Amino acid sequence: MKPSKYAICFTLLVVGMALSSPTQLQTKNDIPAEVICSECNIRNKEGKKVGFWIEDDGLRENYYKDGVMHGIFRLYQREHGRTFLGIFGEYKDGKPVGTWYHFGEYGELVLTEREIRKEKVEYNGRLVPVIKSYAVFYYTSGIIKEEGIAQYDESIQIHFLKRGIWKYYDRSGKLTETKDHK
């Protein structure tokens, strides 16, 4: 079966991002967005963000439509003197859609998320906004390590909770445990 043109384009995009050297990304962070891209960081007549934006000292790249995130999103991270792609996903009308990819410092896939949604849960007698998603964590080899429903606040790295049934796998990919995190 012949691969579709969409599959080929996506593969080229991911390979291109993976091959981007950290040095290129680091030098970009020292240059104002207007110098990198004269058509970036534009506002419409109403003052709303439109098109491609480079923000947070070059660490965040995303698209806007009438002031709302809409399109590809890339978040770069700095650790140990290196800058690398940390998160890749897509927004539609301000909401995350599809599968989101989280990468480690060396480009390895750490986590994928899908079915991402904002909800409110009761905590100490008040409603608190949280994000829920179906999360899949990976071993460095790319084999699934664990999967289930995740709940967290604005950052998945802070206040991360497991909810419902989670599946755990060994390094060969064999299911070893199923646990209910109520």
Helices and strands in order:
Layout lengths: L4 H15 L2 H8 L3 H4 L5 E2 L5 E7 L4 E6 L2 E12 L2 E11 L2 E9 L5 E15 L2 E13 L5 E9 L8 E9 L5 E7 L1
Antiparallel strand pairs: 1-2, 2-3, 3-4, 4-5, 5-6, 6-7, 7-8, 8-9, 9-10, 10-11
Q: Can I get a quick summary?
A:
The protein is mainly beta and 182 residues long.
Reported for the largest beta sheet, the result is: 11 strands, antiparallel
Order of helices and strands: HHHEEEEEEEEEEE
Mean pLDDT: 83
Strand runs, count:
11
User: How many domains comprise the coordinates?
Assistant: 2
> How far apart, in Å, are the first and last alpha carbons?
44 Å
Global shape: globular
Enumerate how many helices there are, as a single number.
3
Percentage of residues in strands: over 45%
Strand order, main sheet: write it out. Answer: 1-2-3-4-5-6-7-8-9-10-11
Structural class comes to mainly beta
Uncertain parts:
1-27
What percentage of residues falls in helices of 4 or more residues?
10-25%
The rounded Rg comes to 19 Å
How would you explain this protein's 3D organization?
The protein has an eleven-stranded antiparallel β-sheet with strand order 1-2-3-4-5-6-7-8-9-10-11. 15% of the residues lie in helices and 55% in strands. The model is unreliable at 1-27 (pLDDT under 50). The protein has helices spanning 5-19, 22-29, 33-36, and strands at residues 42-43, 49-55, 60-65, 68-79, 82-92, 95-103, 109-123, 126-138, 144-152, 161-169, 175-181. It contains three helices and eleven strands. Strand 6 and strand 7 (109-123) form a beta hairpin.
